[in-house]
Amino acid sequence: MASLPYIVGNWKMNGTRASLSEARAIDRGAARLPKVQVAIAPPATLLHRTREAVELIGIGGQDCHAKDSGAFTGDTSAAMLKDAGADFTIVGHSERRTLHGETDADVRAKAEAALGAGLAVILCVGETEGERDAGNAESVVGGQLEGSCPHSDGAVDKLTVAYEPVWAIGTGRVPSVDDVAAMHKAIRAKLVSIYGEAGAGVRILYGGSVKAENASELLSIRDVGGALVGGASLTAESFLAIVGAAAALEDN
Ligand code: PEP
Questions:
Q1: What distances in angstroms separate CA 227 from CA 4, 26, 141, 216, 232, one per listed residue?
Q2: Which of 40, 92, 138, 237 shows the smallest number of beta carbons within 10 Å?
Q3: Is 93 a residue of the active site?
Q4: CATH number for the segment(s) 6-248
């Protein structure tokens, strides 16, 4: 049976207690759209309060450290995210890979730590504009998957992959339908080569400038199992419009 479309909001470094009203509104809206699985990843400072504020939607971290505890000033472990109420964490977001120099090996270690702490994982991959222009998008993304997919027992069952072309994040630009379809097909093939048959069941999200206006088109593409949404997830109104688009496709 096909899984429900999964729409995940990444709040990045945005949000204070005042934003809990948006989380509550997203939760109420999601309750009216049961054919869609909805989650948000607020900043770590809001995880616990968000967990208490919502009833239905999933809650996740945006990153975790690969170690359980220790002298890592400023970092947050997967066990801490879990303790604060997280169900999952994002790892390997391009802003972490670029701004914090995270390698595929780092991302894999974080994914393994998250799974070990009982969290599901959303693993981000994506090419830069230069890599796409050079015709290397699929090989770059394939290499990221080979280098960063977790391998511990049961990993594949708790894994979601998010394809996020770096040049589409926060820019208002999105790849063509054909390019998204080709990349998701390539990611599917790579997941099957890594995990065998189980790789066919891993949900693959698209991320990068998803908005209400383009959500239906993007979510209709074969092998696009949902969306990872940045800017448009910060208000319930814009985020629920995307969730609503996903729900409408399920109704058709
Ligand atoms: C993201 O950073 O994960 C993202 C998809 O951002 P945006 O939707 O703002 O492009």
A1: 12, 15, 17, 11, 11
A2: 237
A3: yes
A4: 3.20.20.70
Binding residues for substrate are 10-12, 170, 209, 230-231
CA dihedral over 9, 79, 65, 126, signed as positive or negative = negative
- Ligand 1 lined by 205 (C-beta under 6 Å): no
Q: What percent of the chain has pLDDT over 70?
A: 99
Rounded to two decimals, the pTM is 0.97
Tally Cβ neighbours within 10 Å of residue 115: 22
Task: Compute, in angstroms, the gap from residue 230 CA to the centroid of ligand 1.
Answer: 3
Residue 31 tokens read as: 């309750």
DSSP 1-14: -PPPPEEEEE--S-
Instruction: Calculate the alpha carbon distances from 140 to 95, 146, 166, 174, 180 in Å.
Output: 16, 10, 12, 18, 15
Dump pLDDT digits (tens) for 8-29: 999 999 999 999 999 999 999 9
CA R_g for the chain: 17
- Per domain, the residue ranges of the chain are 6-248
For residue 121, what is the enclosing H or E element?
strand 120-125
Out of 65, 93, 138, 184, the active site residue is 93
Whole-number Å distance between alpha carbons of 31 and 190: 35
Q: For all residues of the chain together, what is the average pLDDT? A: 97
